[in-house]
Inverse folding.
């Protein structure tokens, strides 16, 4: 990881500040970005030492957490039912697949019309891609469960509710957490689009404002901060998923042990 980051930063430094390669000569250099980011008196008004910097981070994080929570609360149960009930899937899944390819930016005019509050359109645009990712992965997790587990549970006298609780949900859990990681990533992606259009705070707003004011170091600071916060939030989901799925690690260890 350290070698990878070192190579990227080295290429950035040499391409912009030393070699001045075509397409890179107008980009902000590594030195300029670090000076602005670590300055107590930043030339463009945003650095580690300014309160506004953390206001932007918190505003984006709050929006993503709300949208991610909504996509999880709605998407996971919907995905479980879509995977469990063929009749329900026949009614709902075609509509789901019709809307899923529509990008978040296409919803911008309708979001502004539907929601009057300032924050609601941004949260809605952030919610949509995560909702589709969570629902689809949860449904695929249910469909991936071996039929023999369901038949075995039924032969042992388990009812439909017991099968759903003790077979379907645990069996789909790995796919659910994969969907949650994807959901968190696309939530940050779509958040930037929402904040560029309707936000007054947030990392997307920082990037868009930097573009309109030609403060390119601020754009890079916003992009790197967005990547760090997004990576940390996705890593937190992985940690929680690994903790909740310790049984799966033990199962894989046992299945891989020599007999």
């Amino acid at each position: 990881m350290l070698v990878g980051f070192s190579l990227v930063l080295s290429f950035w430094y040499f391409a912009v500040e030393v070699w001045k390669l075509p397409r890179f000569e107008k980009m902000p250099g590594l030195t300029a970005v670090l000076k602005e980011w670590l300055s107590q008196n930043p030339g463009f008004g945003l650095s580690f030492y300014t309160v506004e910097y953390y206001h932007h981070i918190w505003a984006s994080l709050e929006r993503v957490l709300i949208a991610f929570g909504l996509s999880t609360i709605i998407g996971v149960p919907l995905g479980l039912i879509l995977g469990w009930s063929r009749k329900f899937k026949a009614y709902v899944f075609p509509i789901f697949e019709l809307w899923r390819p529509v990008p978040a930016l296409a919803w911008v005019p309708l979001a502004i019309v539907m929601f009057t509050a300032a924050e609601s359109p941004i949260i809605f645009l952030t919610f949509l891609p995560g909702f589709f990712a969570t629902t689809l992965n949860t449904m695929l997790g249910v469909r991936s469960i071996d039929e023999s587990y369901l038949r075995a549970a039924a032969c042992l006298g388990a009812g439909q509710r017991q099968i759903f609780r003790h077979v379907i949900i645990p069996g789909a859990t790995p796919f659910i957490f994969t969907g949650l990681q994807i959901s968190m990533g696309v939530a940050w992606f779509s958040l930037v689009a929402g904040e560029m259009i309707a936000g007054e705070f947030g990392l997307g707003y920082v990037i868009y404002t930097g573009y309109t004011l030609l403060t390119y170091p601020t754009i890079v600071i916003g992009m790197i901060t967005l990547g760090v916060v997004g990576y940390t939030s996705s890593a937190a989901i992985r940690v929680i998923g690994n903790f909740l799925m310790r049984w799966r690690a033990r199962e894989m260890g046992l299945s891989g042990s020599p007999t």
